[in-house]
Amino acid sequence: MAEDIFAQKLQWFKENEKPEVVLLLADSPALTKMLIAWTTTRVTRVEEPPPFNDTSENGVWDWLWANARFSKEELFAKSGLPPHKLEEKLAGLITNRIIYPDGTIHSFVQRYLRQQVVALLDPKAKGRAGAKRGA
């Protein structure tokens, strides 16, 4: 039952995403590294999370994260960021609801990252992007 509550509460956040958070990633290689590392880091949740007392949006978000488990050492190794940067970036990604306590990331951010990869790999896309900027 508690697992269902965790999934239901998390789903609410995913259904209410704000696309503006993508702007936080612009020109930030460190955040990009963190996001890529996050998607390959093992994230679990506690077996039986305690009930939450604060039913506000922020209270539920904090409850979800309090019941998520992951290795900062694994995230550090995968991201290649120094520990002090890792803590700073991780806090920002959580606070801005860009990463989720189930190991996934914000859907608009995920689309943005995929578009960046396509642009890097497709020379035609680079030409079109440059033409749009110059227009």
Q: What's this, in brief?
A:
The chain is mostly helical.
Distance between the termini: 55 Å
Total number of domains: 1
Structural class: mainly alpha
CA radius of gyration: 17 Å
Main beta sheet: 2 strands, antiparallel
User: Average pLDDT, to the nearest integer?
Assistant: 88
Low-confidence stretches: 131-135
Instruction: Please provide the ordered H/E string of secondary-structure elements.
Output: HHEHEHHHH
Classify the beta-strand content into a percent band.
under 5%
Helix content estimate: 55-70%
Number of separate helices: 7
Tell me which oligomeric state these chains represent. Answer: single chain
Spatial shape: globular
What strand line-up does the widest sheet have?
Answer: 1-2
What is the tally of beta strands? 2
What does this 3D model show about the protein?
- With 135 residues, the chain is mostly helical.
- It has one domain (2-134).
- The protein is 61% helix and 4% strand.
- It has 7 helices and 2 strands; from the N terminus they run ααβαβαααα.
- It has helices spanning 2-15, 29-39, 57-66, 72-79, 83-95, 107-121, 123-134; strands at residues 43-45, 68-70.
- Strands 1-2 form a two-stranded antiparallel sheet.
- The relative contact order is 0.17.
- Mean pLDDT is 88; it is low at 131-135.
